[in-house]
Amino acid sequence: MRLLLGAVSVGFSALSAAGSAQAQAYPERPINLVVPYAAGGATDVIARLVATDLSSALDETIVVVNKPGAGTTLAAAEIARTKPDGYTLYMTTAAHTISASLYNKLNYDPIADFAPITLVAKIPIVLVTTPSASIKTLAQYIEHAKSKPEGISVGSPGNGSPQHLAQALFKERTGANFVHIPYRGDAPLITDLIAGQVESAFITLSAALPHIKANKLKAIAVANPTRINVIPDVPTMNEAGVADFNAATWFGLFAPSGISEQIQETIYKSAYKVVAAQPFVDRIESMGGEVVNIGPKDFQRYVKEESAQWAKAVKASGAKVD
């Protein structure tokens, strides 16, 4: 028995040494960074910014792979089944924490099947109206929405999106009468907003910002605890009369669950330096966002909190996907 136990002990020691050596050697080949959206959007832009400098920090090529479809669940399901060796990473958004409540059937667990690395940044949601609208304040907007029996039209980039759920929470909080009009993404929504085909929208600030600056959209209030530097004259929801109403889409870096703690820490330490660099901070702020840059444990807590919050929003909206 002693001989057997000794052999097992030696075996575990050898495995531990092998795992440690693997972590120390990481990375030894190119890394794929999967993005569950098409190229050109905010998530893709942020992922490519991270990938460029993270590649230098790790001294290895990082390839951004766009895999859009099924509201991010297509890519997420693939990541959940991927070997957790650190060579496939995942940059996703708040949609990741909405999925469990939105989809009736999901063949992965958004929390258990993913290892958080860092919460990179957040971009708040802003309420905008068409320029021709006479509405100037949030109080006027709510009054207008309540006074119309048929409701005020409110667009979103899709059913179950953070923007759609933000409007559902706003409706629940204020009693505003809304008619939700879902679009296939921000671009067609913004086109119709500018043309006056839809009256208003809760939209990610990065998507609306160029049009707000060009006076093609009117920003009423931003769902953020503080004002945003790139639109300093736009009040927060709290300032405008709806207390503690905050909503944002976030951008976070994950790996498949089961990744070694050493490799997870290696990626996080390098990513932290990349995200903390002033040029990166400036770029995120120019999009209307803010850098967060928290580590695996804090990010894990944040993901759980977000999942609970968005579950309430999904219930309020009545949104479901089979």
TrEMBL record:
Lipid biosynthesis in keyword set: no
Pfam hit, one: TctC
Keyword Signal attached: yes
Signal peptide span: 1-23
SUPFAM superfamilies: Periplasmic binding protein-like II (SSF53850)
Keywords tagged on the record: Signal
Family per record: Belongs to the UPF0065 (bug) family.
PANTHER family from the UniProt entry: BLR1237 PROTEIN (PTHR42928:SF5), TRICARBOXYLATE-BINDING PROTEIN (PTHR42928)
Protein name stated in the entry: MFS transporter
